[in-house]
């Protein structure tokens, strides 16, 4: 609860897809040396600065992420999602996000458009309000600040 309006704090759901639990150790020349915990912490700081509450889930399983999006309906104000490789083929995640009413920000550490051809397509982009890519870990607080502005 906030101490200003007496209402419930709005929740931003941050979702992390497959292999992002390995950040810090995984291909640091591409994804940097920051860990997922560090990125979540900086996203949380940005959320708190905007009086938002950040929840985070990482899963290596597509269905877990789909169910998290379902559970966010009518409960969360916005979703920030780095779907990992699911970005490129997970139509079930596309459909789940399409059924979510609030803003959705697609987030990538790297810039998939400048990498291998198979990374150029995103099935999440058509149901995203915005995409942030290529900023490394800085993209996490940027995504949350963008969401805060969309909700304002
Ligand atoms: C990624 C980009 C994807 O292509 C890749 O499969 C990932 C990470 C990124 O954050 O840059 O796992 O989403």
Give the overall form: globular
Total of DSSP H or I helical runs spanning 4+ residues: 5
Q: How many structural domains are formed by the residues?
A: 1
Quickly give the CATH architecture.
Answer: 3-Layer(aba) Sandwich
**Strand line-up of the largest beta sheet:** 2-1-3-4-5
Low-confidence stretches: none
What is the percentage of strand-forming residues?
15-25%
Distance between the termini: 18 Å
CATH topology grouping: Rossmann fold
Major sheet summary line: 5 strands, parallel
> What is the CATH level 1 assignment?
Alpha Beta
What is the structural class? alpha/beta
Task: State Rg.
Answer: 15 Å
Helix content: 25-40%
Nearest-integer average pLDDT: 95
In short:
With 152 residues, the protein is of the alpha/beta class.
Write a structural description.
With 152 residues, this protein is of the alpha/beta class. It has a single domain (10-82, 94-151), classed as Rossmann fold. Helices cover 33% and strands 18% of the residues. It contains five helices and five strands, in the order E-H-H-E-H-E-H-E-E-H. Strands 2-1-3-4-5 form a five-stranded parallel β-sheet, with helices on both faces. The longest helix has 14 residues, at 36-49. The chain starts with 9 loop residues before the first strand and ends with a helix. The model has no long low-confidence stretch (mean pLDDT 95). It binds 1,3,4-trihydroxy-5-OXO-cyclohexanecarboxylic acid (DQA).
């Amino acid at each position: 609860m906030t101490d200003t309006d007496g209402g419930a704090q709005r929740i931003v759901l941050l979702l992390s897809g497959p292999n992002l639990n390995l950040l810090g150790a995984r291909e640091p020349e591409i994804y940097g040396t920051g860990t997922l915990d560090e990125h979540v912490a900086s996203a949380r700081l940005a959320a708190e600065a905007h009086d938002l509450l950040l929840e985070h889930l990482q899963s290596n399983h597509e269905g877990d992420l789909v169910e998290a999006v379902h559970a966010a309906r009518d409960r969360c104000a916005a979703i920030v999602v780095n779907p990992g490789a699911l970005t490129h083929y997970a139509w079930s995640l596309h459909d789940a996000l399409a059924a979510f009413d609030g803003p959705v920000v697609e987030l990538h550490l790297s810039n998939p458009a400048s990498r291998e051809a198979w990374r150029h397509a995103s099935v999440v982009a058509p149901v995203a309000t915005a995409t942030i890519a290529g900023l490394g870990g800085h993209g996490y607080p940027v995504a949350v600040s963008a969401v805060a502005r969309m909700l304002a």
